[in-house]
Sequence to fold (811 residues):
Amino acid sequence: MAPVQFQSKLYFSLSLLLFLPSTITSQSNRNVPLGSSLTTESNSSWLSPSGEFAFGFQQITPDGGYLLAIVFDEIPERTVAWSANRNNLVPRGSKLELTTSGHLVLTDPSGRHVWSPNSDPASHAAMLDTGNFVLLAANDSSTLWESFQEPADTLLPTQTLEQGSQLIAKYSKSNHSQGRFKFILRRDRNLFLHVTHYPEMRAGISYWPPTTAVGGQYYTGDRVVFNQSLSLDLILNNGTVVFPVFNSNGGSSSRDFYHRVTLDYDGVLRYYEYPKSNGQSSNKVWSSVYFKPPNICTAVTGDMGSGACGYNSYCELVNDQYPKCSCPPGYILKDSSDESKGCIPDFAPQDCRLQEGNSDAFELVDMPAVDWPLYDYESFEFYTEDMCRQSCLSDCQCALVVYGKFCWKKKSPLSNGRVGDDKTEKSLVKVRRSNSTTSSPHVEKKRKGLVVIIIIGSVLLASSAFVILLSAMFLSMKKKKKNQDSAASRAFLDRQNDLLSRNLRSFAYCELELATERFKEVLGSGASGIVYRGVLPNNNQRRLVAVKRLDNTVSEIKDQEFETEVRVIGGTNHKNLVKLVGFCNEGLHRVLVYEFMSNGSLAGLLFGEEGQSRPNWYTRMEIACAVARGLVYLHEECSTQIIHCDIKPQNVLLDESMMAKISDFGIAKLLKANQTRTMTKIRGTRGYVAPEWFRNMSITTKVDVYSFGVLLLELVCCRSKLETEAANEVEVFLANWAYECYSDGQLRKLVENDDEAMNDVENVERFVKIALWCIQDDPCLRPAMKKVVHMLEGSVHVPTPLDPESFISNI
Ligand SMILES: *[C@@H]1O[C@H](CO)[C@@H](O)[C@H](O)[C@H]1NC(C)=O
Ligand SMILES: *[C@@H]1O[C@H](CO)[C@@H](O)[C@H](O)[C@H]1NC(C)=O
Ligand SMILES: *[C@@H]1O[C@H](CO)[C@@H](O)[C@H](O)[C@H]1NC(C)=O
Ligand SMILES: *[C@@H]1O[C@H](CO)[C@@H](O)[C@H](O)[C@H]1NC(C)=O
Ligand SMILES: *[C@@H]1O[C@H](CO)[C@@H](O)[C@H](O)[C@H]1NC(C)=O
Ligand SMILES: *[C@@H]1O[C@H](CO)[C@@H](O)[C@H](O)[C@H]1NC(C)=O
Fold:
């Protein structure tokens, strides 16, 4: 079919375009007569007069899947601008016919109708130079049907998108099926980008425009026009532009460039241009000049769906506009040929029925700056990274944690993953250890047994007494373990491993004299002795330690007892307890050597010198939680229950990262070794001691709860338990005052001059209420430390506290 000259007037006036779209065709004098046909075998197609566009079959898949399409015919890629059967490729042997009765029909080799436009009988058809294919009426050549009214994923210059029309992205780069995204001018006149999914064509979440425009409203308009000056605008019927989607700003001309706007398979609406063949540049490509939304990775975010990438994968913007989807470490593409299907674990998944295996069969792998910002099933505000890790490792539901300002736990499948802007955040993905087989309880048990044997074996070399102790510990732990959860068994393993690595050392007294330069620098002093700074030579490194020389009273404890207790205490291992490095038991000398805590004691921080800055409210909240967790461990989680008996700010130390740790927790045990549970001699420090000390009642863990309550009030208020009222030089008890403020509804008084706390009165109130429960006169009314932790974390409601007053006035 020889091309006939087309009196080319490429673009029509906007008014024609807007009001009389059907008159476009009147410009054409190049027709496809009735009875014409195209087949997949013939290379023929119906060309536009300029030859720039062709209507015909394009082979898409190697095995012979054909698309009936309009293509840019003069560029090598033959880019598809429109297609008829994108969800339904036809095989070789298919045929397109403009029947003698005036119908355009696509049939497959069996003669089945695959596609046919909904139109009255036409007298002829035409492929126009705009890229529009039209069916025309006989009498006045008015347009009966045009490809422009049923766009696929692309708009061409002069094309309009009417209300209710949409572009639907391809499924993938090479698959022309309807995919996951649509660009639509809705019937409510709103213009949106939506997530969708063929064949379910309902609009899913919208991801552009990102926020409401003027006056809290989206821009509304009557149609979207790709106008003559190559801008894409949302306009009103009278031509007023209400919202420019792409404003070409008089850029490249249509004489020198092809233009198109395509909703790409990645969900990005792009404005492309391609230099026309004028002989010069040979290496030509479509370049994306403008695009929306600015960041597809973060734009596609909603309360359902996987986000810009598939489930379990995460999105990263490359070259400023292209989303790259990647699988987390340990994960692989579910379908290697289809990224959008997301990722799956490349390991046997967690099995919640095998509780024991979880904690050591899995590990967490760091993914810096990767974030999954939605759908946490649990979150913790005051967790350290370590706690966050443990929390996920010990939870068979947990697939990943994001650690940043919070610890956020996530289940599978993960959605909305992206490389975040916040470099302080990272994701930790849980993967099965590479050489761990799918665990069965049987296998796990064997492994644990082995660990214990190794421990016992190595210890045998050192001391046989130690062996007996360890065996006893193991047995008692084993007994405990039976009715405890996996957290306990994890703690058990931690402890075992720790004993192996920690090398609780027995020092000679002279060694410690050397380390402390004859007990030169005092770090602090407590009820049971004085603490000195020391430096231990440790291979090539020097290690700072705190060396505590116990008073003579303590040394009355028999050697055997001292060592046994030290070993037990040395066996405790919790991040909120100061670690015991070693001890010395020589003659009358009883010395304990601890890890050095560079930030000193909480007392120093809270009530230190005037002008010294106090820890901020959030740090204080964190410290409270840390101390509480340390106490839970002493009370409930170590092999033998330990009551501290002297919880106070002086005994809470802070390491270089401001992690709070309880110190001196073993001293109580050492002192108590020879004593009955009712004590005549009051221990502890005035203001922090529970009333039962004075009442000949038995001493339980609740005495620590009481002291913790006082400490908590001090943390909230940054004041000491005995605050001297400057005005009248009267000592008032902080607890007393706090309750007054609380019951008078004047909590703000407690945290005056503390902006952060003032702005967080809700948490201040919660903490004060918890503290008031802890200092109840009746030990039975005080919550156990475990419950205190839950209340501090906010996972348990804090009821209105009773008045602890009766007790306070008795002191
Ligand atoms: C169709 O055209 C291609 C290149 O455009 C050519 O390689 C092929 O031989 C042609 N086939 C037929 C049947 O004309
Ligand atoms: C042209 O024909 C169509 C039906 O094919 C009819 O609806 C229309 O009125 C006709 N127009 C003129 C100008 O005759
Ligand atoms: C394109 O993707 C759709 C959706 O996954 C699939 O059903 C179809 O078979 C694919 N087509 C081709 C040609 O691969
Ligand atoms: C096309 O759109 C631009 C930008 O919105 C506008 O300035 C221009 O007037 C429009 N062109 C025509 C011919 O309407
Ligand atoms: C177009 O219509 C809008 C609202 O109907 C109106 O505000 C605007 O002034 C009109 N513009 C013109 C050029 O008539
Ligand atoms: C498992 O792998 C780790 C490190 O890759 C290695 O240290 C350990 O010995 C391995 N364990 C077994 C049982 O192969």
User: Anything to note?
Assistant: Residues 14, 227-229, 231, 233, 241, 244, 247 surround 2-acetamido-2-deoxy-beta-D-glucopyranose (ligand 4) (CB under 6 Å).
